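User: Here's a structure from my thesis project, written as structure tokens. My advisor, Dr. K., wants to see whether a designed sequence matches the one we expressed. Can you design one independently, without my sequence as a hint?
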């Protein structure tokens, strides 16, 4: 965990892949507890430290997570996240070689090359209808509205190019379950290491190559603009593909 920003009302940290934001059935220590311990020690706080979870980041994903340090900030941040007032930018590494990707019970038959372009400032938009399967902890994307589906939209562009992989910058326009993972896979670009969504192999550390890079929002209390970026992962591939 690396602290990126903090004040009396909020704290923003960059989490490592593998960390869980909030406690779950695994019983593993969550990031929220680590942040509480940090605040308790730094400010010599007696008793329980208040910390509100405003949003989550999937366990195998690294990058920015925002927590509220006061109940006032928590209530306002919850509304801001729900209403799309927190603008999130992600980076994702996907394969670049021409190939056809298929996965059981899912249509991944689009070729990757049909959606790739050279490095460009132009964003491509993806629109799908997503259905979440709670038992599988997985979402399915459709090109048209189906029962129980929610519209999902994102924009992406290619910002890094290697021999075998490309780095995408992704801007979320909606906030759906596994949205980036699901939508990129739907168009034949599963994220590196993401076996659940059709990647051919796992990453050695169990992560997926998706990274919450940047957040922009108006501070819930001070009303000042907040813009933060997480440091690029130290992994050699991230370093090689990241814009210099």
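Assistant: Designed independently from the structure alone:
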């Amino acid at each position: 965990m690396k602290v990126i920003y903090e004040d009396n009302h909020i704290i923003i940290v960059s989490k490592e892949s593998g960390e869980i934001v909030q406690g779950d059935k695994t019983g593993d220590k969550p990031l929220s507890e680590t942040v509480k311990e940090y605040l308790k020690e730094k400010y010599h706080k007696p008793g329980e430290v208040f910390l509100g979870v405003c949003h989550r980041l999937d366990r195998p994903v690294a990058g920015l997570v925002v927590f509220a340090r006061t109940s006032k900030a928590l209530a306002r941040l919850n509304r801001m996240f729900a209403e799309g007032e927190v603008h999130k930018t992600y980076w994702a590494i996907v394969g670049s070689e021409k190939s056809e990707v298929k996965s059981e019970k899912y249509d991944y038959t689009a070729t990757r090359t049909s959606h790739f372009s050279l490095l460009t400032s132009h964003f491509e938009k993806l629109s799908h209808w997503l259905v979440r399967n709670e038992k599988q902890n997985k979402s399915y994307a459709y090109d048209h509205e189906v029962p129980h589906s929610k519209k999902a939209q994102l924009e992406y562009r290619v910002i890094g190019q290697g021999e075998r992989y490309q780095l995408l910058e992704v801007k979320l326009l909606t906030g759906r379950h596994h949205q980036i993972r699901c939508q990129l896979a739907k168009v034949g670009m599963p994220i590196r290491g993401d076996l659940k969504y059709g990647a051919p192999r796992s990453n050695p550390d169990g992560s997926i190559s998706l990274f919450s890079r940047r957040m922009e929002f108006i501070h819930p209390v001070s009303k000042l603009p907040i813009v933060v970026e997480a440091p690029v992962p130290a992994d050699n591939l991230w370093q090689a593909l990241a814009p210099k």
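When you compare it with your expressed construct, this may help: The two ends are 24 Å apart (CA to CA).
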